Amino acid sequence: MRASVIVFPGSNCDRDIAVALTAALDQKPAMVWHGDTSVPPSDLIVLPGGFSFGDYLRSGAMAAQSPIMKDVVAKAKAGVPVLGICNGFQVLTEAGLLPGALMRNRDIKFLCKDVLLKVERNDSIYTSQYKAGEVIRVPIAHHDGNYFADDETIKSLEDEGLVAFRYVDETGAASAAANPNGSVNNIAGIYSADMKVLGLMPHPERLISPALGGSDGAPMFKSLTEALS
Amino acid sequence: MKARITVTLKNGVLDPQGKAIEHALTGLGFEGVDEVKQGKLIELDLTDSDAEAARARVTEMCEKLLANTVIENYAIELE
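C-alpha coordinates for the assembled complex are given below, as produced in the milestone run.
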Protein backbone atom coordinates (compact mmCIF):
# COMPACT_ATOMS: atom_id res chain seq x y z
CA MET A 1 0.00 0.00 0.00
CA ARG A 2 1.35 3.39 -1.01
CA ALA A 3 0.41 6.29 1.22
CA SER A 4 0.98 10.02 0.80
CA VAL A 5 0.90 12.58 3.61
CA ILE A 6 0.24 16.18 2.57
CA VAL A 7 2.38 18.64 4.51
CA PHE A 8 1.11 22.21 4.93
CA PRO A 9 2.99 25.06 6.59
CA GLY A 10 1.93 24.61 10.22
CA SER A 11 1.15 20.88 10.01
CA ASN A 12 2.55 19.30 13.17
CA CYS A 13 1.20 15.74 13.18
CA ASP A 14 2.64 14.84 9.78
CA ARG A 15 5.52 12.97 11.43
CA ASP A 16 3.21 11.18 13.88
CA ILE A 17 1.05 9.87 11.05
CA ALA A 18 4.17 8.93 9.06
CA VAL A 19 5.39 6.85 12.03
CA ALA A 20 1.96 5.20 12.41
CA LEU A 21 1.74 4.41 8.68
CA THR A 22 5.33 3.14 8.53
CA ALA A 23 4.65 0.82 11.48
CA ALA A 24 1.51 -0.57 9.85
CA LEU A 25 2.76 -0.73 6.25
CA ASP A 26 6.42 -1.47 6.76
CA GLN A 27 6.95 1.23 4.16
CA LYS A 28 7.39 4.98 4.54
CA PRO A 29 4.68 7.23 3.13
CA ALA A 30 5.54 9.94 0.61
CA MET A 31 5.59 13.36 2.25
CA VAL A 32 4.04 15.79 -0.26
CA TRP A 33 4.47 19.56 0.07
CA HIS A 34 1.28 21.66 -0.21
CA GLY A 35 2.79 23.74 -3.02
CA ASP A 36 3.14 20.72 -5.30
CA THR A 37 0.43 20.25 -7.86
CA SER A 38 0.14 16.48 -7.97
CA VAL A 39 0.05 13.65 -5.44
CA PRO A 40 2.15 10.63 -6.45
CA PRO A 41 0.14 7.46 -7.20
CA SER A 42 -1.32 6.51 -3.81
CA ASP A 43 -3.73 4.03 -2.26
CA LEU A 44 -4.29 6.45 0.62
CA ILE A 45 -3.88 10.20 1.05
CA VAL A 46 -3.66 11.67 4.54
CA LEU A 47 -4.25 15.28 5.57
CA PRO A 48 -2.50 15.49 8.94
CA GLY A 49 -3.25 17.40 12.13
CA GLY A 50 -1.73 20.73 13.03
CA PHE A 51 -2.42 24.40 12.53
CA SER A 52 -1.98 24.93 8.81
CA PHE A 53 -1.41 28.60 7.96
CA GLY A 54 -1.80 29.46 11.64
CA ASP A 55 -5.55 28.81 11.46
CA TYR A 56 -5.84 32.24 9.77
CA LEU A 57 -9.33 33.23 8.61
CA ARG A 58 -10.82 29.84 9.62
CA SER A 59 -9.12 26.56 10.55
CA GLY A 60 -8.31 24.75 7.31
CA ALA A 61 -9.57 27.54 5.03
CA MET A 62 -6.18 28.49 3.58
CA ALA A 63 -4.95 24.90 3.28
CA ALA A 64 -8.09 23.99 1.33
CA GLN A 65 -6.96 26.48 -1.34
CA SER A 66 -3.37 25.14 -1.54
CA PRO A 67 -2.19 24.07 -5.03
CA ILE A 68 -2.04 20.38 -4.01
CA MET A 69 -5.70 20.31 -2.96
CA LYS A 70 -7.00 20.39 -6.54
CA ASP A 71 -5.37 17.01 -7.11
CA VAL A 72 -6.43 15.70 -3.69
CA VAL A 73 -10.06 16.60 -4.49
CA ALA A 74 -9.78 15.07 -7.99
CA LYS A 75 -8.29 11.84 -6.60
CA ALA A 76 -10.92 11.64 -3.83
CA LYS A 77 -13.63 12.03 -6.45
CA ALA A 78 -11.97 9.22 -8.42
CA GLY A 79 -12.27 6.98 -5.36
CA VAL A 80 -8.85 7.27 -3.68
CA PRO A 81 -9.35 7.07 0.12
CA VAL A 82 -8.54 10.31 1.96
CA LEU A 83 -8.11 10.44 5.72
CA GLY A 84 -8.20 13.83 7.46
CA ILE A 85 -7.25 13.97 11.12
CA CYS A 86 -7.99 17.06 13.25
CA ASN A 87 -6.80 19.95 11.06
CA GLY A 88 -7.10 17.50 8.17
CA PHE A 89 -10.83 17.10 8.97
CA GLN A 90 -11.18 20.89 8.97
CA VAL A 91 -9.43 21.04 5.58
CA LEU A 92 -11.76 18.32 4.19
CA THR A 93 -14.86 20.32 5.16
CA GLU A 94 -13.39 23.56 3.80
CA ALA A 95 -12.50 21.78 0.55
CA GLY A 96 -16.05 20.44 0.24
CA LEU A 97 -15.06 16.76 0.46
CA LEU A 98 -17.09 16.37 3.65
CA PRO A 99 -20.21 18.31 4.69
CA GLY A 100 -20.52 20.66 7.67
CA ALA A 101 -17.95 22.76 9.49
CA LEU A 102 -15.75 22.61 12.59
CA MET A 103 -16.43 25.57 14.84
CA ARG A 104 -14.85 26.96 18.01
CA ASN A 105 -15.28 24.54 20.95
CA ARG A 106 -18.43 25.17 22.98
CA ASP A 107 -16.45 26.26 26.07
CA ILE A 108 -13.95 28.22 23.93
CA LYS A 109 -11.00 26.40 25.52
CA PHE A 110 -8.32 24.48 23.65
CA LEU A 111 -8.85 20.84 24.63
CA CYS A 112 -5.95 18.42 24.96
CA LYS A 113 -6.98 15.17 26.63
CA ASP A 114 -8.01 11.59 26.03
CA VAL A 115 -11.66 10.99 25.14
CA LEU A 116 -13.76 7.88 24.64
CA LEU A 117 -15.11 7.20 21.17
CA LYS A 118 -17.66 4.74 19.91
CA VAL A 119 -16.79 3.05 16.62
CA GLU A 120 -20.18 3.30 14.93
CA ARG A 121 -19.57 0.66 12.28
CA ASN A 122 -16.77 -1.72 11.36
CA ASP A 123 -17.54 -2.32 7.69
CA SER A 124 -15.35 0.51 6.43
CA ILE A 125 -11.77 0.36 5.18
CA TYR A 126 -10.79 2.33 8.29
CA THR A 127 -12.49 0.27 11.00
CA SER A 128 -12.55 -3.43 10.04
CA GLN A 129 -10.17 -4.29 12.91
CA TYR A 130 -12.52 -2.77 15.51
CA LYS A 131 -15.80 -4.25 16.72
CA ALA A 132 -18.96 -2.35 15.78
CA GLY A 133 -19.98 -0.34 18.84
CA GLU A 134 -16.55 -0.74 20.46
CA VAL A 135 -15.50 2.06 22.81
CA ILE A 136 -11.91 3.19 22.31
CA ARG A 137 -9.70 5.79 23.98
CA VAL A 138 -8.04 8.35 21.70
CA PRO A 139 -6.63 11.83 22.42
CA ILE A 140 -8.05 15.10 21.14
CA ALA A 141 -6.04 18.31 20.78
CA HIS A 142 -8.07 21.09 19.21
CA HIS A 143 -9.64 24.52 19.56
CA ASP A 144 -12.09 24.19 16.69
CA GLY A 145 -13.63 20.73 16.91
CA ASN A 146 -17.28 21.59 17.40
CA TYR A 147 -18.92 19.81 14.47
CA PHE A 148 -21.85 21.70 12.99
CA ALA A 149 -24.09 21.13 10.00
CA ASP A 150 -27.66 22.13 9.24
CA ASP A 151 -30.49 19.84 10.35
CA GLU A 152 -30.98 18.38 6.89
CA THR A 153 -27.29 17.43 6.56
CA ILE A 154 -27.21 15.89 10.04
CA LYS A 155 -30.34 13.89 9.26
CA SER A 156 -28.84 12.55 6.05
CA LEU A 157 -25.52 11.67 7.79
CA GLU A 158 -27.46 9.79 10.48
CA ASP A 159 -29.93 8.12 8.09
CA GLU A 160 -27.15 6.92 5.79
CA GLY A 161 -24.93 5.71 8.64
CA LEU A 162 -22.12 8.11 7.77
CA VAL A 163 -21.22 9.00 11.36
CA ALA A 164 -17.92 7.18 11.92
CA PHE A 165 -17.13 8.00 15.55
CA ARG A 166 -19.06 9.57 18.43
CA TYR A 167 -17.90 10.96 21.78
CA VAL A 168 -19.32 8.65 24.46
CA ASP A 169 -19.04 7.73 28.15
CA GLU A 170 -17.73 4.40 29.50
CA THR A 171 -21.06 2.72 28.79
CA GLY A 172 -21.00 3.79 25.14
CA ALA A 173 -23.74 6.39 25.62
CA ALA A 174 -23.40 9.63 23.63
CA SER A 175 -24.29 11.76 26.66
CA ALA A 176 -24.01 15.53 26.97
CA ALA A 177 -21.32 15.05 29.64
CA ALA A 178 -19.22 12.97 27.23
CA ASN A 179 -19.34 15.67 24.54
CA PRO A 180 -16.10 17.65 24.93
CA ASN A 181 -16.67 20.40 22.38
CA GLY A 182 -20.38 20.82 21.63
CA SER A 183 -20.47 18.79 18.41
CA VAL A 184 -23.97 18.07 17.08
CA ASN A 185 -25.05 14.53 18.13
CA ASN A 186 -21.58 14.04 19.74
CA ILE A 187 -20.12 13.57 16.24
CA ALA A 188 -16.33 13.09 16.30
CA GLY A 189 -15.86 11.83 12.74
CA ILE A 190 -17.80 11.31 9.51
CA TYR A 191 -17.52 9.44 6.23
CA SER A 192 -18.23 10.65 2.72
CA ALA A 193 -21.17 9.02 0.93
CA ASP A 194 -18.86 6.37 -0.62
CA MET A 195 -17.17 5.79 2.81
CA LYS A 196 -13.75 6.40 1.23
CA VAL A 197 -13.16 9.80 2.83
CA LEU A 198 -12.96 9.92 6.63
CA GLY A 199 -12.53 13.05 8.73
CA LEU A 200 -12.17 12.92 12.49
CA MET A 201 -11.03 15.32 15.20
CA PRO A 202 -9.37 12.77 17.56
CA HIS A 203 -5.83 11.55 16.88
CA PRO A 204 -5.64 7.74 16.43
CA GLU A 205 -2.05 8.12 15.15
CA ARG A 206 -0.94 9.26 18.60
CA LEU A 207 -1.90 6.01 20.35
CA ILE A 208 -0.44 3.18 18.33
CA SER A 209 1.77 1.49 20.91
CA PRO A 210 1.75 0.87 24.67
CA ALA A 211 4.96 2.93 24.83
CA LEU A 212 2.87 5.94 23.78
CA GLY A 213 0.28 5.31 26.50
CA GLY A 214 -2.11 3.11 24.55
CA SER A 215 -2.71 1.38 21.26
CA ASP A 216 -6.40 1.96 20.53
CA GLY A 217 -5.45 3.89 17.38
CA ALA A 218 -3.42 1.03 15.87
CA PRO A 219 -6.38 -1.01 14.50
CA MET A 220 -7.27 1.88 12.16
CA PHE A 221 -3.93 1.58 10.41
CA LYS A 222 -4.11 -2.22 10.44
CA SER A 223 -7.58 -1.96 8.85
CA LEU A 224 -6.23 0.33 6.11
CA THR A 225 -3.30 -1.99 5.45
CA GLU A 226 -5.61 -5.01 5.13
CA ALA A 227 -8.08 -3.17 2.90
CA LEU A 228 -5.64 -1.42 0.59
CA SER A 229 -2.64 -3.74 0.28
CA MET B 1 -12.29 51.51 -4.29
CA LYS B 2 -12.61 49.93 -0.88
CA ALA B 3 -14.68 46.89 -0.04
CA ARG B 4 -15.69 46.26 3.54
CA ILE B 5 -16.91 42.72 4.18
CA THR B 6 -18.67 41.79 7.39
CA VAL B 7 -18.76 38.09 8.14
CA THR B 8 -21.16 36.90 10.82
CA LEU B 9 -22.41 33.55 12.02
CA LYS B 10 -25.79 32.51 10.68
CA ASN B 11 -28.79 32.54 12.98
CA GLY B 12 -29.06 29.29 14.91
CA VAL B 13 -25.30 28.63 14.84
CA LEU B 14 -23.84 28.53 18.34
CA ASP B 15 -21.52 31.48 18.92
CA PRO B 16 -19.48 30.59 22.03
CA GLN B 17 -17.33 33.73 21.78
CA GLY B 18 -20.40 35.96 21.57
CA LYS B 19 -21.84 34.18 24.62
CA ALA B 20 -18.60 34.72 26.59
CA ILE B 21 -18.59 38.43 25.71
CA GLU B 22 -22.21 38.67 26.81
CA HIS B 23 -21.34 37.06 30.18
CA ALA B 24 -18.36 39.38 30.61
CA LEU B 25 -20.46 42.48 29.89
CA THR B 26 -23.06 41.32 32.41
CA GLY B 27 -20.25 40.68 34.90
CA LEU B 28 -19.03 44.26 34.43
CA GLY B 29 -22.49 45.49 35.39
CA PHE B 30 -23.76 46.42 31.92
CA GLU B 31 -27.41 45.52 31.95
CA GLY B 32 -29.83 45.04 29.09
CA VAL B 33 -27.50 43.17 26.73
CA ASP B 34 -29.70 40.44 25.33
CA GLU B 35 -27.40 38.84 22.81
CA VAL B 36 -23.85 39.36 21.53
CA LYS B 37 -22.61 38.12 18.19
CA GLN B 38 -18.98 38.24 17.20
CA GLY B 39 -17.95 38.40 13.57
CA LYS B 40 -15.09 39.48 11.34
CA LEU B 41 -14.40 42.62 9.37
CA ILE B 42 -12.29 42.27 6.23
CA GLU B 43 -11.25 45.35 4.22
CA LEU B 44 -9.98 45.16 0.67
CA ASP B 45 -8.35 47.92 -1.39
CA LEU B 46 -9.45 47.27 -4.96
CA THR B 47 -8.18 48.67 -8.23
CA ASP B 48 -11.68 48.40 -9.73
CA SER B 49 -13.47 51.55 -10.80
CA ASP B 50 -16.75 49.92 -11.74
CA ALA B 51 -18.81 49.22 -8.62
CA GLU B 52 -20.96 46.55 -10.21
CA ALA B 53 -17.95 44.55 -11.45
CA ALA B 54 -16.25 45.00 -8.07
CA ARG B 55 -19.29 43.71 -6.23
CA ALA B 56 -19.43 40.65 -8.48
CA ARG B 57 -15.74 39.94 -7.87
CA VAL B 58 -15.95 40.42 -4.10
CA THR B 59 -19.04 38.20 -3.96
CA GLU B 60 -17.03 35.46 -5.65
CA MET B 61 -14.17 36.01 -3.16
CA CYS B 62 -16.63 35.65 -0.28
CA GLU B 63 -18.15 32.47 -1.68
CA LYS B 64 -14.76 30.88 -2.42
CA LEU B 65 -12.68 31.92 0.59
CA LEU B 66 -13.65 34.81 2.82
CA ALA B 67 -16.79 33.25 4.29
CA ASN B 68 -17.78 29.65 4.95
CA THR B 69 -21.38 29.74 3.83
CA VAL B 70 -22.16 26.56 5.78
CA ILE B 71 -22.02 28.62 8.98
CA GLU B 72 -21.49 32.25 7.98
CA ASN B 73 -23.30 35.12 6.26
CA TYR B 74 -21.46 37.97 4.61
CA ALA B 75 -22.36 41.54 3.74
CA ILE B 76 -20.40 43.69 1.28
CA GLU B 77 -20.12 47.48 1.42
CA LEU B 78 -18.29 49.38 -1.32
CA GLU B 79 -17.03 52.94 -1.07
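Chain A touches chain B through 20 residues (CB under 8 Å). The radius of gyration of chain A is 16 Å. Further analysis is deferred to the final report.
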